[in-house]
Structures are given as structure tokens and as C-alpha cells.
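Feature request disguised as a bug report, sorry. It would help if multi-protein outputs had a clear separator. Right now it looks like this:
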Amino acid sequence: MAVATAIAVYFLIWWIMLFAVLPWGVRAQGQEGVEGAPGTDPGAPTVPRLKAKLIWTTVAAGVVWAICAMLYIKGLVTLDGLASVFAFPTQNR
């Protein structure tokens, strides 16, 4: 796997994992009974804990990326194999 491809795949996995991690532990202002700033939505989080979520996203994405990379490097998953699963045309080599 080329370095640029590995970085691109990691970035995609990281971005998807970010949206999976963002809702973890969120407590809305309405749930806490806390008056938020005027004009804010009652569903806005009281303490978003973004730094911790970015760290968890990086760790989780690293684990998922390592698993995907090992499957690709060992040849257990190939692009032609994925194409046939999703019924895309493959290149004859």
C-alpha cells in the first residue's frame, strides 16, 4: 500500500469514526436543567469534551486502520474481491 493511499484511508476512517464518537457522553442543557446562554438550543451539550473525543477518535481510527491495513497486506481482502462483492466491473490483469 502506498504511503499516500494509507494516509488517505486513515483520514477517511478517522472522519467516519469522529461522527461515531461525537455523541458519546453528551448531556444536553435541557437534561441537566442548566440555563444555557441566551439563544442556544436546549439540546446543545453542556460540556462537549471535544479534546477527549478527538483523542478517542484517533485511537479508534488507528485500530480500525491497522486491521484494514493488515487484511490488505496479507491479501485477505483485495480490490478485485471487493469489486466482485459489490458487482462492479473488474480489470483483467
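(second protein starts here, but nothing in the output says so)
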Amino acid sequence: MNNTVLNGLQLYRSKWFSDLVDENMLSNALMTKPHEVSTVLSYIFGTYESSVIDFLTSGLGKTITVENRQYEWPVMIAHDKAIEIYDAKWQGHSVQSTDTPGINQTPILLYMKEKWFGPGAILAFDEREFQARVSGAPYQDGDYYVYTVFVADGKAESYIPANLLQKFSKVSREGSAYEEYSEEADIVNYNTPFKLRNHLTTMRLAYDITGSAYSSKMVIEMKDPKTGKSSYLWSDYQEWQALRQWYKTIDRFLVYSKYNANPDGTTDLKGTNGRPVYIGAGLLQQISPSNRQTYTKLTADLLEDYLFNLSYNILSKGERKFVALTGEMGMKEFDRVLKEKASGYQLIDTKFVSGSGQELTLGGQFTTYKMLNGIELTLKHFPLYDDIVYNRTLHPVSGKPLESYRMTFVDFGMRDGESNVQKVVRKDREMSMWHVAGSVAPGVGHAKSKSTLRANAKDGYTVNFLTEQGIMVKDPTTSGELIMEVA
């Protein structure tokens, strides 16, 4: 839906841009106006639905703080767009069908028309299990930006299939990952008994603004729906957009990130300064592969048998509490099944839900059903699965993303007084935010005196975001997935 016309009332198409913001860019993007223009278009800044993963973990007090990057635990036997690739080169030539681009950690050059990803960005291809990391900033070659990428898992035998690098294939941002003592950051766009081990991922984002753009007024008014604050200043919009993208990216990467460490805990993926880049396993990768099952049509018997098998001889009846994260199409499938066999389920309230009927609160769109054998299933709409920008494989009949039919059953029960699923954060690094001031500083404004101390001579400032966090599924044998499969 990028750059589409919504209806006959639209005056002009939206434009996309990234990274450094200056007055010329604002003018080209139709975001400034001459002083004498009196009419104002009103724009309500798009709402960001609260992070589902953050709500189900830290929002319910299920966060633990660690002091090391690696963490282990015992288990008893749980405004975006994709960018088109116009050319991909490997070892000096355009990628051929017989090539194994990226093997032995060799660089792949991706030619794209937009500067959309920054250093350290993790890119997912049309088959999203294949991921690569951007090394350094892209450089311009004629009409194209050239990105140097390496296979993100850091393994010598890994490569990106050639069919995913052909012209008009796409890549999208899955997250970002950096080495210790890093200086680089991804960029903002406008419009993550035996022992298990995981490690935290350091994620970053940064945005720049010039001194002139800091005070520029726009032709549109923005309103932050959370605070009610209205503003015509580009700097306010930029801060809101950066925070919105930041939290969405963290939520996505906590679900889809792929573990890249070797058995000894090291990784071969290196950042620009030569230090290792560690990527922790996200929620989906931690679910036991044996608990994944495909389906073509959901039935009540299939659902009950699946959940019974998932908890059989593992969980006591008091612990069989599952949350099913699913997209709009998965919710539709559930609704059809429940109507077909409504007598077998009992609608109840849990700590996730208050009210009754349509008056559900605390996150909304929670519906809990009690089944046989003490199984309780709480449905939660998961917008990540519906996003057509990041989920580009479509159902041949409905035309909706196949990912929207995915049903991820997560066991949020308790183990020895602790939740089975928890967010893990590095001490004092769950959310770091700072600015590097030049001629202007956020909240302070322009420097007016030679005694004003600033960090550099740049006419503007940079704002940085950094987090070091991950997610832990203590018992991966009690979570699973039903995944739609089509011929």
C-alpha cells in the first residue's frame, strides 16, 4: 500500500525518506510552507498499538535483570515498507541461479534505490528465515544505494539462496544488532533436566536533525494520541516517529530474531570495529520444533488434540494455561471453530481480562476459553502477524498474509513461582537514550553564548537509543505453533 492514493480527496502522494533531516528535504517532502499560507491540514499522528510482548512480560511484572550478556537456565524434560532489490552482486558479478552468495562469510552487494537501512540493520528476505546484517553505511552508485551485507548467522556454510536476490525481490528490517563498544546505529524511517543458553542483543537506533530544521514549522499539525500534545515542529514529529519505530522494532525482534552463537558461546559475525555481534534467540526460535504442526483447515478436534498433546504428561491440570498469539485470519478461524462447537468451551475471565461481553479491558481482544482436561486458552490478537510489509507470502484465496493464520501457543504458566516466559534485560541498559549536541540541543534550543559547551561543531544534534535485552522461554517443550500450509 506504499505511495498509494487512498481516495479522490488525496492531494498528493506521500514520500518516503530516511536518516539526516535538513530543510531542503523537508521542502521536497512538502512538510514546510511559506509563512503567508494560512490554511492548515490536520494530521493525527498514527497510534502505535502497545507492544504485545512487552505487555505480556514486563507489563505484568515478568522481567528479570542480569549483569552478563549470556544467561542460562535449567529446563525439565516453550510505518514501514519492504525495499526492492534491483541487483545483487557477489564475487564481482550479478548473482546467478547456481551461486551460493554469502558463503564463507563473503560480502553480498545489494543495489536498492533508497537509503532505508543503516549500519547493523538485520534484513529479512522474502523467505524470512534467511537474514543478513548490513555492514557499514550504504554508498551511492548512480541511482542506487549499495549495501554490503553478510549472512547474519555468521556461519561459514550459510548463504542466501540466489532466488531471493533476483530483481524485484524484497528485503525488510527485522531488527538491528551491534558489537560491544559500538558507535554505529540503525537509522529512522518515516511513514528481537538440561540447560538452555541465550544471550542479549544490543539494539540501536539514531536520528539526526539540522539546526535549521529544528525550528521549522510544517504544513501539517501532529497530535500524539498518548499525551494529547499537538505540534507543528518537525523535531517533535521526529521524536514521536523514532520512539514509535523503536518500540515496534524491539517487539518484532524479540519474536523473530535468530540465535547466532557457536556451541562455545562465541560468534563469527563481526561489526565494523571488529568486535563480535551477538544475536539472541527470539520467541519463535525458542519453541521446540517438535511442537510445530501445519494445518490446512482448523477444526475443533485438531485444536483440542493439539493442546492436549502439548500439555500431556508435562503440565499438571493447574498449569495448562496457554495464550494464543494470532493474526486477524487466525482469530477468524478460531471464531468459526468456536461457533461450530460452542458447547465444548466455556467463556471465562482471567487476570488478562476484566469486564464481560464486548467490554473487555487490559489490552483488549483477549478472549479466554476453558476446555477439557483443565486446558485454558486465551486468544490475543498479534498485529505483527498481520503486517503485509513484513509478511509477504500471501494466502492464495484470501490474499492475506499466511503469517496471519499462524497460531503461537505460549505457556505463560508459573514455574517455581516464576513465569515461564520472561523478558531479560541487562542491568541499567533496558532503555538508554541520549543526545549528542551541536549548535542545538533538544529541549534546550540553540546555543547563544561562547560559554555554552557542546559535543561537536555540527549544526544540529543526534539522538541515540540503545537497549540490551532478550526473551526467555524457560520450558520450550510446553509452547508450540499451528502454522497454515497451502499447496
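Even a blank line would do. Unrelated, but nice: The radius of gyration is 24 Å.
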